[in-house]
């Protein structure tokens, strides 16, 4: 698991990339803001054309979750995860367990 510097990361508290070779998992988790509480968000699996597209999407989605939580008056921040892969053919028990381990490690 690695964290990389990127200009778009400035507004995010944490952006983490995961690659688990055994399961084929490639994923990104972005934590945008936790000042109001723990990050709220879900996971999207999509066959992104490239890693940059996945990164742009997870950053945009995590910012959106911060705004949604705040507007709803929740004591929660915003975060989101993306799995790079086809949701119709790429899911496996091993991949989902690896994603769970990835989330749990945070």
Structural summary, described in words:
The chain contains two helices and five strands. It has 106 residues and is an alpha/beta fold. Strands 1, 2, 3, 4 and 5 form a five-stranded mixed beta sheet that branches. The longest helix has 21 residues, at 51-71.
Topology as a string of helices (H) and strands (E):
EEEEHEH
- Measured by DSSP, the beta-strand proportion falls in 25-35%
Task: Provide a count of the helices.
Answer: 2
DSSP strand tally:
5
Q: Which properties best describe this structure?
A:
alpha/beta, 5-stranded mixed β-sheet, about 110 residues
Layout of secondary structure:
Elements: E1 14-20, E2 25-33, E3 39-40, E4 43-46, H1 51-71, E5 77-84, H2 93-105
Parallel strand pairs: 3-5, 4-5
Antiparallel strand pairs: 1-2, 2-5
Short description:
With 106 residues, the protein is of the alpha/beta class. The protein has helices spanning 51-71, 93-105; strands at residues 14-20, 25-33, 39-40, 43-46, 77-84. It has 2 helices and 5 strands; from the N terminus they run E-E-E-E-H-E-H.
